[in-house]
Amino acid sequence: MDGQHVKNVGKVLAKKKKDLEDFLQRVLKPELEDAINDEQSTQSIIQEYTDLKCFVSKKILSRPSEIRTMQKHISDEGEVLKADPKPSLLLCDEAVVDLGYDMMFCRAEITEPDKLFVDVGLGFHVELELEESIIAIDSRIQFLERNVLQKKSERRAAISQHFKESFDLLKAFENMSNV
Questions:
Q1: What CA–CA distance (Å, rounded) separates 63 from 69?
Q2: Phi and psi (nearest 5°) for 107?
Q3: Taking a C-beta distance cutoff of 8 angstroms, is the pair 32, 160 a contact?
Q4: Is the model's pTM score more than 0.85?
Q5: What angle do CA 108, 44, 33 make, to 5 degrees?
Q6: What is the pLDDT of residue 7?
Q7: What is the distance between the alpha carbons of residues 64 and 54, in angstroms, rounded to a whole number?
Q8: What confidence tens digit (pLDDT) does each residue in 21-47 have?
Q9: What contacts 24+ positions apart, CB below 8 Å, involve 32-39?
Q10: What is the DSSP-derived secondary structure letter of residue 160?
Q11: Which stretches of the chain score pLDDT less than 50?
């Protein structure tokens, strides 16, 4: 190859390298950050439902007449409910209440909780007895884990893979330009 051709190839590689760096910074990095935030947000929502389920279960078990019914439900489900060691939005008989569209919240005291309003999705809240709320909460957790979280995790994994492949290509451009 002649010297002019080598210079042209060097310029093309330098331009491709710069374009790829820009793509990584302007497109893939923000997409990956958004995907990670979306996934973490869904995990947080699932944790809130899990905490709510634990709270409701404790309330049901604290009622003498309901102990047998709840124990049967727990054994049918094959799970044991225990408190989460991390701090929760549900503290004793308090809860954080969304006053509208995830924009304003307040702390509320729960007095004699015989019924709860449970978010069942799409902005709908249903008033349920405590026992019914356990079933609705379980359904919501399963839906979020199987559908929402799984898709968000797959999206994050795909973007992470694209980021890794682009970064590997960038390193290859650097190696070629060093030769």
A1: 11
A2: -90, 135
A3: yes
A4: no
A5: 130
A6: 75
A7: 17
A8: 999 999 999 999 999 999 999 999 999
A9: 32/156, 32/159, 32/160, 32/163, 35/152, 35/155, 35/156, 35/159, 36/156, 38/152, 38/155, 38/156, 39/149, 39/152, 39/153, 39/155, 39/156
A10: H
A11: 66-68, 70-71, 75, 78-91
